[in-house]
Amino acid sequence: MLRWIDVIRFTNQGNPEPDRIVRKTDEEWRTQLTDEQYRVTRQKGTERAFSSPMCSLFEPGLYACVCCDTLLFDSNEKFESGTGWPSFTQPFKPNAIAYHGDISHGMYRIETTCNTCGAHLGHVFPDGPKPNGLRYCMNAVALKKVSKHLQKAVFGGGCFWCTEAMFQQLKGVVSVESGYSGGDTVNPSYREVCTGTTGHAEVIQITFDANEISFEDLVRIHLGSHDPTLLNQQGADKGTQYRSIILTHDDEQKQTAEKVIAEMQVGYEKPIVTEIKPFQAFYKAEDKHQNYYVDNPEGRYCQMVIDPKLQKFRTLFADKLKP
Ligand SMILES: [Zn+2]
After folding, report:
1. Same domain, 87 and 135
2. 219: which of 198, 237, 260, 307 fits an S-S bond (Cβ 3.0–4.6 Å)?
3. What separation in Å is there between the alpha carbon of 39 and the centre of ligand 1?
């Protein structure tokens, strides 16, 4: 969860790396956008307060950049600020938005832009609601509501630094979080999970758009991207916390997982030992474990262990990768 201190850090020390970058010529933006969208997003304009019905729209869904379709906000984080502009407390992902100091109009403010395409969105202020206190004050014209068929999948296949890095690359995967699941300890820490006594496995929670990638495909990719015949071990990592596991949300996911395992068993001499267990809870891991590979590309573990795995993954599932 981002706080004001993070916003200041991004503004002063550099913005987070986006998942992708979209660049177009001014002419291309002009052709693609309406006059008002162009004026606001590409020329740092501001729409009239209360000019959009989006301010009072609170139905579930996601908001994307009107220029490049990158997901920027979730309606769960939207609140009524009374300002006349749609307001949110958090971006959809920490790297969705970029921050810049803005001294126009005789004040110091922090401007927000789409981190993917540079579209001007609005400003962010430290007077939002608890717990994190942020108010992203957005131009409605810079956003568009998108209907996605979002579902969740929870998989364990060894170290989550590795599995997160792989699944982040798939088309239709909206977000990946590293955490713990499959055990009984409530709110376990990394250190506790490492002891192997919590019953939890290191897992990733994947949010995906079922219109773009199916749960079945994800299971197939999950099993194909680690060794599902190894019991409580992947590579040099040993212990029940590294076991191969699929946590299922309903009967349909369970049956799909069983079907794919049976299909893939044909390709292995040893039995697939992947555990299928009903999902109960996902405990998000500490912040330093999130987005680990992207944030630590120079790290020894990333270069020695994750890089080769990722290369293999990209070859195996080339047709499923984000552009
Ligand atoms: Zn954009």
Report:
1. yes
2. 260
3. 14
Residues whose beta carbons lie less than 5 angstroms from ion ligand 1: 65, 67-68, 70, 114, 116-117, 119
Expressed in angstroms and rounded, the spacing between residue 171 Cα and the centre of ligand 1 is 18
Q: Are 96 and 143 in contact (CB under 8 A)?
A: no
Q: Determine whether 159 is an active site residue.
A: yes
Q: How far is the CA of 274 from the centre of ligand 1 (A)?
A: 40
Let me know whether 156 and 139 are in one domain: no
- Which of 146, 178, 204 is the endpoint of a domain? 146
The domain in which residue 277 lies consists of: 150-320
What is the distance in A from the centroid of ligand 1 to the CA of 66?
7
E strand or H helix at 58: none
Distance between CA atoms of 108 and 103, rounded to whole angstroms?
Answer: 5
Q: What is the pLDDT along the chain (323 residues), one digit of tens a residue?
A: 899 999 999 999 999 999 889 999 999 999 999 999 999 999 999 999 999 888 888 877 889 999 999 999 998 899 999 999 999 999 999 999 999 999 988 899 999 999 999 999 999 999 999 989 999 999 999 999 987 788 999 999 999 999 999 999 999 998 999 999 999 999 999 999 999 899 999 999 999 999 899 999 999 999 999 999 999 999 888 999 999 999 999 999 999 999 999 999 999 999 999 999 999 999 999 989 999 998 888 888 888 889 999 999 999 999 999 98
In 3D space, the residue among 89, 96, 101, 92 whose CA is nearest the CA of residue 13 turns out to be: 101
Q: What ranges in the chain are assigned the alpha helix state H? A: 4-13, 26-32, 35-42, 160-167, 190-194, 215-224, 251-265, 292-295, 300-301, 307-316
Say which of 68, 114, 159, 162 is annotated catalytic. 159
Ligand 1 center to 286 CA (angstroms): 29
16 Cα: distance to centroid of ligand 1 (angstroms):
15
Please indicate, yes or no, whether residues 208 and 304 belong to a single structural domain of this protein.
Answer: yes
Let me know whether 161 and 304 are in one domain: yes
Active-site residue, 68 included? no
